[in-house]
Design a protein that fits this description.
Layout: E1 6-10, E2 13-16, H1 17-29, E3 39-42, H2 47-57, E4 63-66, H3 73-83, E5 87-89, E6 94-96, E7 118-122, E8 132-136, H4 137-140, H5 148-151, E9 155-157, H6 165-177, E10 180-183, H7 189-198, E11 203-206, H8 208-216, E12 226-229, H9 236-245, E13 250-257, E14 261-266, E15 273-274, E16 287-290, E17 295-299, H10 307-312, E18 319-328, E19 331-337, E20 342-344, E21 347-349, H11 351-358, E22 364-374, E23 378-387, H12 394-408, E24 417-420
Parallel strand pairs: 1-10, 3-4, 3-5, 4-7, 9-10, 9-11, 11-12, 12-13, 23-24
Antiparallel strand pairs: 1-2, 5-6, 7-8, 13-14, 15-19, 16-17, 17-18, 18-19, 20-21, 22-23
Helix pairs in contact: 1-2, 8-9
Length: about 425
């Protein structure tokens, strides 16, 4: 790859390949020089320093524990202890965490002994305490396109946190294929979109919730060639809207997780995936099954490791994703998380199923379905709705939403409570906060 190819745009700076590598080498020879064959945690807010640090540490450190800056400090400390990291690098200074001291390492051996560095990622922790998953660079880029001649045609915008699995995938895809990566400096959604437009971004990867927010804008002026969706259920309504709005873009639903890595990708514009993939390997060479409980089981081609992974993998090498699926005709459709159901007097309701129905109403921008405690039947279904036109008759709209649900769902799945909100909340990974 030519050294003057623009690679990263951040804070009004455009950094080329040569400059990025030079800065990484300076870090390795300077602040990070004592880390050869050591376990180090990195918790870095500055995206550019973070990228340079990863380049410097891969093949040099024994392990890199990647901690999101947004992570609770007590949880971060617990993960550092669990991973046995002796050092912490915050992007500015290096801290020795081992009070008894670290045996001196002969750094001069590093040049002739490149290591196979462990990349340790924390799960999102949305269903409990984050777990540590061990990858190598090889397992992280097993599905990455590495054609640098085509890479120059794409400019990726970073939507996810770069310290999370999904963000790291975009980061590595961009760096390895030689595509420019535009990183917004603001957390404001509209300002981020402006950054993508100014940077001529033509490739974006984000959650369905994020894409719905984008589609609410009257005219985003984005000229996209590549649209990648993942992290939540991708329904047909959203796919149709994206196909209609970005007619020249290639749209891909990617099924991935910190534990399984990138599992598979669906490119046919339909929700779910083909039933044939349950009987034979997918295009990504992974194997898929459905358990007796209706959970999707996946056997990835490049497995991660670690205690948390060992607890998730069965004797045949399959990971229970905890995602509920249903076979309808020739498709396997996602229904929600196995632990996310609402209990209505013993009957289970998947919030995502109800949300998909409500989104069909033309006045609904977005919706969140969640449980509300009930002394009589355990829980009730409630819906928080974001509407397009505030002047609409809200009583009439509520009746229409209920009738829409009654026409498509069993009676116990129809929301007992409907309220209107100005906006929904999203977490740092771009998912709806439930």
């Amino acid at each position: 790859m030519e050294s003057d190819r623009p690679l990263v745009s951040f804070n009004d700076k455009l950094i080329d390949v040569g400059e990025l590598i030079d800065c990484a080498h300076e870090l390795r020879a300077g602040t990070l020089k004592d880390l050869f064959n050591q376990d180090v945690a990195v918790c870095i807010s500055d995206s550019l320093t973070y990228i340079q640090s990863l380049i410097a540490l891969d093949g040099f450190a024994k392990s890199i524990l990647i901690l999101p800056p947004s992570l609770n400090s007590d949880i971060a400390a617990a993960l550092i202890k669990e991973s046995s990291c002796a050092y912490l690098f915050d992007g500015k200074s290096l801290s020795n965490l081992n009070e008894s001291g670290i045996p001196e390492t002969k750094v001069q051996t590093a040049a002739s002994n490149k290591l196979k560095t462990n990349w340790i990622l924390a799960t999102s922790g949305t269903t409990g305490t984050p777990k540590l998953i061990y990858h190598t660079l090889g397992s992280l880029i097993s599905t990455t396109k590495q054609d640098i001649s085509r890479g120059k045609d794409y400019c990726w915008g970073l939507v996810y946190e770069p310290t999370r699995f999904a963000g790291l995938q975009v980061l590595l895809q961009s760096l390895i294929s030689g595509s420019k990566l535009v990183i917004p400096s603001s957390n404001n959604f509209n300002e981020q979109i402006s950054t993508y437009i100014e940077g001529k971004v033509n490739a974006l990867s984000a959650t369905p919730s994020w894409w719905r927010k984008l589609l609410m804008l009257p005219n985003s002026n984005l000229r996209l060639k590549v649209i990648s969706i993942g992290g939540e259920i991708v329904d047909q309504t959203l796919l149709n809207q994206l196909l209609q709005t970005f007619q020249s873009a290639k749209i891909t639903h990617i099924y991935a997780s910190t534990e399984a890595g990138v599992g598979f990708s669906v490119k046919d514009g339909k929700a779910g995936f083909p039933i044939e993939w349950l009987e034979e390997s997918t295009d990504s060479k992974v194997k898929l099954k459905v358990s007796n409980e209706g959970h999707l089981l996946i056997k990835p081609r490049a497995s991660a490791s670690g205690k948390a992974m060992n607890e998730r993998v069965n004797a045949d090498g399959f990971i229970d994703t905890q995602d509920l699926v249903q076979i309808i005709d020739d498709r396997v459709l996602f229904k929600g998380r196995s632990n996310g159901a609402i209990n209505i007097g013993g009957s289970k309701v998947q919030p995502e199923e109800v949300e998909e129905v409500i989104r069909h109403h033309p006045q609904v921008k977005d919706v969140l379905v969640l449980p509300k405690k009930s002394a009589l039947i355990g829980e009730l279904v409630q819906a928080k709705v974001v509407i397009k036109d505030e002047s609409v008759d809200k009583k009439l709209l509520k009746k229409e939403i209920i009738e829409l649900c009654k026409s498509s769902l069993e009676g116990y799945k129809v929301p007992a409570l409907i309220s209107y909100v100005g906006a929904l909340e999203y977490n740092s990974t771009g998912k709806l906060i439930r």
